[in-house]
């Protein structure tokens, strides 16, 4: 009888929650969405494994540093350190942007979201809205009309508006809302509906903690623990298990470091990782249903400053399952001219691999370009960012965020002409001769000169034929020791002596 038994759990027959789908590869946990389809492709080829800890790190320049150099002190003395801190502080905006996508996706999928960190309430209020959400009307532009008759002056003022815009036709009602898909499409030009936030707070699916107290780590852990217990109670009461998303904003900022040490930050992140694992993969001998959990953390640039004194970012990287570096081209001189179409660079330091022997991102991600094999000339060893990987960058447009491979234009550089020159310049360039010194600058064509008949020249005497080089004679076959001795004597006779005899010197 085989010792291996299939794990029989009641969660197999339970319906899949919204925003959750099974992994296309063998994995003990399902996949969740970060709200950015391109980021889902980078992490696990279509999502991120439940129970993972995703860390977003601010970087400088093109974020082309190894995992060992991440968080190291800047070179160049105090001036270099201050300049590096300003570059990293500019990248905090984009770590918050990526983190807001994760939180907005959780609210759109009706997941239990816990947001802790610096100004958590304001962070939730400024989340982006969905594409199909109707725009909130501006009540200041409309005036309530009364039944009183209009005066001639009011009528004249109203007639100044074009007749086609005076009383517009009411907009058609929005289509009925369908079940949200795995990834929701968001619009950066819209804000999340206040009614949605109020409804989430009423249903206890949204919890925020701004950490205004002195003991920030204790308060944050208490808030997260209460939300986890609430999800366990909900999972025990109904058949479908909820999904928990934990969002930690500006981790390591002075608000967190008021009465905490760098070791406390690492210990806190390890506790979050253990909590996410225990919820997503409960023990087999218990009847607790699995609760998919995702922890998303954005690190503050304060951890990279000289005041932090310890390279805690490198320690936090090893305590997380996935780590991405984000930089801003606007803060680095010259990068905006080299890459005018991109906002910043994206560096993959680590991708999650829970319950798998191989990293699923290496064989499933299309953007990273490592599915067919890595290049043999790479010398980096970052535990998942090997040779053959594409350089990635992101674009922040008016309505959406895009992640694409970072490449120069086909012209090959910034000094190349990328537009066609004017027609006048092209016509003048065609008239100018290619070789000015060799072409005479004459307005009229030169008259042809008469060519005299050439007299026959006497034929030169044929030079003496040079003898053809003779091919070397083939070696004679071996005919015994006598023949070998004769060959050696012949070679010694032709070769000059190395040491002359005393009688050969002349005095």
UniProtKB/TrEMBL annotation:
Pfam families hit by this protein: PAXNEB
One GO CC term on file: cytoplasm
Primary location class: cytoplasm
Source domain of life: Eukaryota
Subcellular localization: Cytoplasm; Nucleus
Biased composition (Pro residues): 464-477
Low complexity biased stretches: 442-451
UniProt region (Disordered), positions on chain: 370-390, 407-507
Pathway where this protein functions: tRNA modification; 5-methoxycarbonylmethyl-2-thiouridine-tRNA biosynthesis
One GO biological process term: tRNA wobble uridine modification
Keyword Transferase: no
Protein name: Elongator complex protein 4
Source organism per UniProt: Malassezia caprae
Taxonomic classification: Eukaryota, Fungi, Dikarya, Basidiomycota, Ustilaginomycotina
Gene: ELP4
